[in-house]
Design brief:
With 145 residues, the chain is mainly β. The protein contains one helix and nine strands; from the N terminus they run E-E-E-H-E-E-E-E-E-E. The protein folds into two domains: 78 residues, Chitinase A, domain 3, CATH 3.10.50; 50 residues, Thrombin, subunit H (Beta Barrel).
Length: 145
């Protein structure tokens, strides 16, 4: 049997959980996730775990935050004066909005993490930043490079 190596395209079924056991994503009931190993299409820790697996292999992989979505970066939080938020946007905690980067080149998702009478704090960190992750994976197919 062919073992997974960099450059191969693989399809996997997976379930991702946090350290407390909460599931944050799963391919259950969906098509398998397909990606090219070593291409940077998925988080580094999961990418590295694929090497050497064969079709039908299953394993559990624990991935520290630095090999997943990285640490929480305090610079990715921004305070915006409340009057700059259009009245037609219903502000609530956890709301996802889009902001432009300071240079106007990128649009990025942000989450409302704090609201008070004068300002709204937006967080552009990935929702899984700073979290260690666990993945149960199963290799469904391998297309050699």
């Amino acid at each position: 049997m062919s073992e997974v190596k960099a450059g191969d395209t693989v399809a996997i079924h997976y379930t991702g959980t946090l350290t407390d056991g909460t599931t944050f994503d799963s391919s259950d009931g969906r098509d398998p996730l397909e990606f090219e190993v070593g291409s940077g299409q998925i988080i580094p820790g999961l990418d590295k775990a694929m090497s050497g697996m064969v079709i039908g292999d299953k394993k559990v992989v624990e991935i520290p935050c630095d090999e997943a979505y990285g640490a929480v970066n305090p610079e990715n939080r921004q305070s915006v004066p409340r009057e700059q938020i259009p009245d037609d946007i219903p502000l609530e905690m956890g709301l996802t909005l889009q902001m432009q980067s300071p240079d106007g080149e990128q649009v990025m998702p942000v989450t409302v993490v704090e609201i008070n009478e004068t300002e709204v704090v937006m967080d552009a960190n990935h929702m899984l930043a700073g979290k260690d992750l666990t993945f149960e994976i199963e290799v469904i197919s391998i297309k050699a490079a």
